[in-house]
Amino acid sequence: MFTDPSVLGFFFVGGLVLLERDQSIFSTLYVTPLKIHEYLISKVMSLTLLAAVTSIVLFIVIHQSSFHVVPFLLAVILCSMFFTLLGINLAVRVKSVNAFLYTSPLIVIVFYLPLVDYIGIFDTPIFFILPTQAILLLMESAFRGAPIGIYLYSVAVLAVWIGLVYLWTYQSFQQFLKDKCFT
């Protein structure tokens, strides 16, 4: 369930942005009242909604009512937001879908490292600074429950990472538009 919202957000938005680039959609952003923030938020929210709906349907079908919905939805929503922003950031930096697909493992692998601990291969406290660890803790607490500190830690770490990647993506997208439209 971790990979569904992350892969959906990251790879799907990468394809969308690259398709929009090929169709010269971005040139129109300068003549419409649509702001970069609004564009980014619309992409993040639409893919996050899609990830949340599909994940909750899958979870209900598989686990019926034997899980806590709030930590699960928090994990899915925050995971999707983070990886969607990361996907946009990479998509504006590459020239083609192939370049996106070849480059994406270099970025995603860093954030997937806590999965190594989750499956019991390697454990280090450094993983706790990565957003993936927070996502995994929230997903795990959907089944076992968790102390309030786990929820606070997870939401705080994810909020910081989402904020940082949003600022980075905003700047990257702004530079991309300047390069694309004025060169």
- Roughly what is the average pLDDT, rounded to an integer? 88
Quick one: overall form? globular
Number of domains: 1
- The low-confidence runs, each spanning 5 or more residues with pLDDT under 50, are none
Using the CA coordinates, give the radius of gyration.
17 Å
- Share of β-strand residues: under 5%
H/E element order: HHHHHHH
Q: How many beta strands in the DSSP annotation? A: 0
Number of distinct helices:
7
Please give the largest β-sheet: none
Helix share, percent? over 70%
Gap from first CA to last CA = 42 Å
- Please state the structural category: mainly alpha
Pfam families: FLQE3_permease
Transmembrane segments: 6-32, 44-63, 69-92, 99-120, 150-169
InterPro entries: FLQE3_permease
Protein name: ABC-2 type transporter domain-containing protein
